[in-house]
């Protein structure tokens, strides 16, 4: 099938590449010429395991092309995926200007029936706005204003596991209209996704608004689990319970399940913070408050500071003269994404309290430098107190404490003897509960986890 993908961000690039790998002819469009040039060379602008090879293989097989040519993109795909960004507006609502611009460009250049798929995470009702824009342009061109159908097909892939998630989806949500064009579009989408549907029925076909809502509901539910567990972990600290044992105790109930119950330093990334805010905003627009979700966000903002509170409790609020090793910068492992990363809040607080920080991350250092430059625009001189180590052990030299923010695999089995020899004093603030408190105690390491009982 001929497919066009508009926007070569995370979702667009993964979708396009994986669909090409299944044998489709995929045309990826982006406005950013430098990015397109890079992709044409088979280099990818993000760190995502397995993706670069897949891009290179499919370019070589002539199934995947990258271009900035808007007219050619609209002509190419029978299915046009809109996978552009929906950044939050100042008030937290999703800004649809890129989505609607993409829709307009399709309509200006399209040359036959098109299935226009919203892949971007968009507020409930966006499909109507997309359809209205296309209809307006088609009417202006004197063409059949109904020669297209809008489909909502939200993406659930996780960064760091994006290729696998796309290739082995739990479910494929398809929102379609009930009219003839909608049903025609559904038949085309079923054909496109047939390779994923061999052994199990993965399709969840529904109306457009429910599909749009499903994406927000999923992320809001997951974010809620995390904030809830983070609050319980903080209470466990006070009452002397161990959140890890509690997690296992409740996770064994199949109604609850084990996943997404890990307490930590708060959720970050490009989806949860933005989608929680956007859904809260949608509710307000419709005259309802989502009180649970408002609390989820507030709890998460506080949780990003939980390690700072524990550090202040241990060392006092003035950290001048102290040196902290920090392991993990990206918002989670296997990505270099620094969007809403808890490490940024932590570094901000530590440097402003006078500390020196030596950070390590396997892949996110250059992204981190870029992000921190923005965070410290008001106090750039403080960045002199931040340095980066190329090896996690080097970060520990003369450190007064180690702070763990991201659970990269490389941090899971530290050489405690070397750690103790390198550090000024062996103190660990573990924001991801990577170690067992009693093991640390036996090794003579002072250990502070999140909701862990020593
Ligand atoms: C998420 C959704 O999982 C995905 O379905 C959607 O398409 C996009 O948003 P992603 O942001 O890539 O994916 O990361 P995810 O693995 O879900 O983690 C999100 C955040 O929650 C991370 O900061 C992670 O550290 C945190 N988290 C996750 C916890 O704090 N505890 C948990 O138990 C799980």
TrEMBL record:
Enzyme Commission designation: 1.1.1.22
Segment forming the signal sequence: none
Keyword Zinc tagged: no
Positions of transmembrane segments: none
One matching Pfam family: UDPG_MGDP_dh
Main EC class the enzyme belongs to: oxidoreductase
Cited InterPro entries: 6-PGluconate_DH-like_C_sf, NAD(P)-bd_dom_sf, UDP-Glc/GDP-Man, UDP-Glc/GDP-Man_DH_C, UDP-Glc/GDP-Man_DH_C_sf, UDP-Glc/GDP-Man_DH_dimer, UDP-Glc/GDP-Man_DH_N, UDPglc_DH_bac
Keyword set, alphabetical order: NAD, Oxidoreductase
Ranges for domain UDP-glucose/GDP-mannose dehydrogenase C-terminal: 325-437
Pathway(s) of this molecule: Nucleotide-sugar biosynthesis; UDP-alpha-D-glucuronate biosynthesis; UDP-alpha-D-glucuronate from UDP-alpha-D-glucose: step 1/1
Family, as annotated: Belongs to the UDP-glucose/GDP-mannose dehydrogenase family.
Record's protein name: UDP-glucose 6-dehydrogenase
Organism: Variovorax dokdonensis
Lineage of producing organism: Bacteria, Pseudomonadati, Pseudomonadota, Betaproteobacteria, Burkholderiales
